[in-house]
Structure formats: structure tokens, C-alpha cells
Write a structure and sequence with these properties.
213 residues; alpha/beta; Metallo-beta-lactamase, Chain A; seven-stranded mixed beta sheet; five-stranded mixed beta sheet; 4 helices; globular; binds zinc ion
Length: 213
């Protein structure tokens, strides 16, 4: 199993040579996991990142039609904008059912079941707080993470969590004191702690560089 950084999540505003903001300055991370001959994409980036995503996939030798499964950490558009552009992919996300008014995730119960993922070595945990439907993904047994700059982090049995917006560097450094946007700060804290309790060696956050623990 291999992990590829497709987009590093960011919330800054790059300027081009004419001092114009390069869009999108804000996007969630996009991550590819190759396992059991399947290509699994975790999150699909913000509006304006499509070219960036397809260029990187091409570099790895993958076409959008080769994506078998799309996993979404949550439905905020900076993470899910291009979800419909992988026509062969099975979509696994936890969402509100607007039609019936029911949702599969309207619960503050941290123990309510997470997404079930049919790939060995990838599992989900529920991490609400920033968003009610948040799932974070645990990846076990990957050989390495291929970074955007083509550097390789060897994992050798180390574990990775793709967290979405359930945790970030600031939250960890502040010992869970500084909480970013959350509809429920206490729930956010509990979810962040739940991620740390898994003892990941690396976290790929929704925004910002990979976190080494
Ligand atoms: Zn985000
Ligand atoms: Zn979000």
C-alpha cells in the first residue's frame, strides 16, 4: 500500500508575478492511497484545484477513470467540490439526507458507527465537532508517503491518519486549548483526543503540511 500527497491542504493566498491572488488559496488536502490494486482518493479539493489534481495524478500514472473509491472526510466544499468528477468511483461519505430530513450522522455520539471501508488497512473513525459528519481515516501498513515534491517518507509499519478538519498543528501544539471553527468545541476536543489516542506517527491534516508526531 502506498500513499501519495495529491494536494497539500492550505489556507493562504499565493500571489502570482503580477501580485494577483492565485486561486484557490484555500483548499483541503487531497490524498491518494493505492491498495489491493485499487485507487482510493481521500477528499477531492476546493473549486479551482481540478487541474492541480489531474496533473499530479497523471504524474503518478493515474487517470481520473482509474479512481475506484472516493472517501470524503466531510462535505465542506473545500474538501468535496470535485466529488462528481470521478465517474467510475464508489463514493463513501457520511452525509445528511436532505430529502427525508434524516441523517446518518446527526448524533453527537462519538461511538456511533463510522464509514465502513471495503479495503484492508483503511478504516474510519468518527470525529465530529468541526462538522457533524466528519470521518477521519486510519491507514495501516503503508510502505510510504510520496510527498508533492516527490520526496518519500518511509513508513515501515508506522501509522497515518488522514484527519480532515478534525485536528491540526495548532490544536496539537496548544494541547487542545486552541480550537478552530467548530460547531461544538467540546466535541471537537474529544474528537481530536480520539485521533491522538490512536497514536498515529503522521497526520495528514485537512489544511497545512503533514504533521510528524
Ligand atoms: Zn477545510
Ligand atoms: Zn471543514
Amino acid at each position: 500500500m502506498k500513499i501519495y500527497q495529491i494536494i497539500e491542504g492550505r489556507h493562504d493566498h499565493h500571489k502570482d508575478e503580477n501580485n494577483l491572488t492565485v486561486l484557490p488559496g484555500h483548499t483541503g488536502s487531497v490524498t491518494l492511497v493505492q491498495s489491493e490494486d485499487k485507487n482510493i482518493l481521500i477528499d477531492t479539493g476546493a473549486r479551482g484545484t481540478w487541474e492541480e489534481t489531474t496533473k499530479r495524478l497523471k504524474q503518478i500514472g493515474i487517470d481520473v477513470l482509474d479512481i475506484d473509491i472516493v472517501l470524503l472526510t466531510h462535505l465542506h466544499l473545500d474538501h468535496s467540490y470535485h466529488v462528481a468528477l470521478f465517474p467510475q468511483a464508489q463514493l463513501l461519505a457520511w452525509s445528511h439526507d436532505w430529502k427525508s430530513g434524516e441523517t446518518k450522522c446527526l448524533t453527537n455520539d462519538l461511538n456511533a458507527g463510522p464509514l465502513e471501508i471495503p479495503i484492508k488497512g483503511i478504516s474510519a473513525i468518527r470525529t465530529p465537532g468541526h462538522d457533524e459528519c466528519m470521518n477521519s481515516f486510519i491507514i495501516e501498513g503503508a510502505e510510504g508517503i510520496h510527498l508533492i515534491n516527490n520526496e518519500l517518507i518511509h513508513l515501515e509499519g508506522k501509522n497515518v491518519i488522514v484527519s480532515g478538519d478534525a485536528i491540526n498543528q495548532v490544536v496539537i501544539e496548544s494541547n487542545l486549548e486552541k480550537i478552530p471553527y467548530a460547531y461544538d468545541a467540546e466535541l471537537y476536543r474529544a474528537s481530536a483526543q480520539k485521533i491522538l489516542d490512536q497514536k498515529p506517527d503522521f497526520i495528514i491534516p485537512g489544511h497545512g503540511p503533514i504533521i510528524f508526531l
